[in-house]
Design goal:
Elements lengths: L7 E4 L4 H9 L6 E2 L14 H14 L7 E12 L2 E3 L5 H11 L3 E11 L5 E12 L4 H10 L19 E5 L2 H5 L3 H10 L6
Parallel strand pairs: 1-2, 1-3
Antiparallel strand pairs: 3-4, 3-5, 5-6, 6-7
Helix pairs in contact: 3-4
Length: 195
């Protein structure tokens, strides 16, 4: 695992999923920091700009020691230009699942890495996800399992929701929360010795 020296990595996220995905690259953060930023979309802000801005703001919100690199990410779910926030209640989750039932939506994952010299780089990954038409019973069963609460769009692709997805076009890891292709490129550009 990559953990030391001039390439000490700070993960600006409390998401266990992002930490797990970093592990697939052979990277273990030296520390975890949860940035506290306002995630309210700006008036007229489109989903791509929103996702990119949040990743950059999260990365900049974390104080770094000498030699540290910070990585932050954001995953935004959108139907057209409408940004779906994190489902905080079962009622919000039901409404989101009804909205995305049988239609395509976008999962936009952004990653921002600030290297040890303070240089910021960011990339976006856009994935199209299409759920099957969901019956009321399927929505209720999924809500009851509890895994979609606190998740953008009201679902977690790595769990039971995956069986409800008819098609995905793009990055599976991006929908999970951290697009690995883009993340690997950014970490390498920041000086991390990845294979």
């Amino acid at each position: 695992m990559t953990t030391s020296g001039a390439t000490a990595l700070v993960l600006a996220s409390s998401s266990p999923r992002r930490r797990e995905l970093l592990g697939r690259l052979g990277v273990e953060p030296t520390r975890i920091a949860s940035p506290d930023i306002d995630e309210t979309p700006l008036p007229g802000e489109n989903p791509r700009a929103y996702a990119l801005r949040l990743a950059q703001e999260k990365a900049r919100a974390v104080p770094l020691a000498a030699g540290e690199i910070v990585l932050a990410g954001d995953t935004t779910v959108a139907v057209g230009r409408r940004i779906l926030s994190k489902a905080e209640t079962p009622e919000e989750q039901r409404a989101m699942l009804r909205l995305i039932s049988g239609r395509r939506h976008q999962c936009i994952s952004s990653v921002c890495v600030i290297d040890a010299n303070g240089h910021a780089r960011a990339r976006l990954s856009q994935t199209i996800v299409i759920f099957k038409p969901l019956s009321t019973a399927e929505i209720e069963a999924y809500v009851a399992c509890g895994e979609g609460l606190g998740k953008a769009g009201g679902y977690a692709i790595q769990g039971a929701a995956e069986a409800l997805i008819r098609r995905i076009d793009g990055s599976h890891s991006g929908v999970m929360g951290l697009p690995l292709y883009e993340t690997r490129a950014l970490l390498r550009a920041a000086g991390m010795p990845l294979g």
